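Researcher: Here's the sequence for the chain we discussed earlier.
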Amino acid sequence: MLVGKKKAMNTKIRPGNKGGRFSLYAVVLLLTVTLSVASENCSVKQEFIQVFFPNDEVITAELAVTDDQRIMGLMYRDHLASDQGMLFVFEEEGIHSMWMANMLIPLDLLWLDEDKRIIHIEMDVPPCEKPPCPSYASRIPAKYVLELKAGIVEGNGLELFDRLDFILPENR
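Model: Thanks. This is the structure I predict for it:
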């Protein structure tokens, strides 16, 4: 809105419009720089920790601590190395169900209590091919869920009540 007697400038961008304040090139450049800076400043920081199995094997687990991270999980990933996983960290122990919607690979799932003991295991859980997708949950309240490449639980001899060891960053 203009106040007073000033006239509005013609800012429409048309081919051959030389009367506008900015050229199409300048607008595109400005948008590119703005989006680039915004994506760098707003990028989600991924955090990883080491998880130690009772047999001294170690995996690197990506942390899923926010609602958005837990919702996304490992969806759309077509590969998970045998020394990688994702650790879902919940604020409180509870019945936390998992599903395989938009998953591309089968997984082993471990539910852990607040003492990091395995309280429930689901092995070789297949991707969900079409809705409705089944949910998987422990009947006992869990604080963590660890997703691993299918076959890792059996290959490492993991069993109920085994204790895993990891240290969460201080802010978690």
